[in-house]
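TODO from last week: model Sodefrin-like factor.
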Amino acid sequence: AILTAVVMLQALITGADCLLCEQCLSSGTGQCSGIFKQCSPNVTHCVKGLENNTEGTDVILTAFKDCLDPSQKAACGREFFFKNSVVSFQISRTCCDSDFCNRGDVEVPAVDENPNGYKCEDCFTAQSTDPCTTAVEVQCTGEQNMCASFSGAGSRPGGAVLKYNLKGCASRDFCDLFYQVETHAFTYELLCSPAKKL
C-alpha cells in the first residue's frame, strides 16, 4: 500500500498521465508480485498471465505481470496450447486498461483435457539435425483443432538454448499469434494445418 502511494505521488508530481502497472516475473511458481511501473506513453493496457512449460513430468510455471507491448494487444484474453506425447505448452494472459489493474492473483482457466475427436502427428527431438518424422499420432484435446510443426531454437525457462523439432496438437490462437507471446523461442519456423478427424 505504501509503495502504491509512492508511485501514485510520483505520477502526480511529474504530471504524467501514463498507465501504472505491476511488474514481476517469477519461474517455478504460479504467482508473482513486484513493483508498480509507470508505462511508456503509448501503452494502454497492463497484462498478467501464466506460462506452463512441461516436458515429461517436469513442469515449469512462469508467472508474469507488466505493461503490455502495444503490438501484443491481439493476444489479450486468448489461450495458447500445444501438446504432444512428450511436451505441452500453455500461455494464458489477461489484459486491462486502468492503473494497478493487473495486481492480485494470476488466474488461469481450467484446461480441458477431454479428447475432441482430432489427431495430429506426434514427434519430439532435441539437439538433432534430423527432421521430425514419425508415423505416430496423438489425440487432441479441448480447443486444439490444429496440427503444428515447430522447428528452431528455443529454451525452457532457466535452461540452455537447444535445437527443437516438434509436432503435435495446437489451438488456433497458438498458430495465429504465437509470435506475439513466445518468450523462449528464437529463430524458428512454425507451420500449422487443420487437424485430422479420428
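Done. Residues 2-14 form the longest helix (13 residues).
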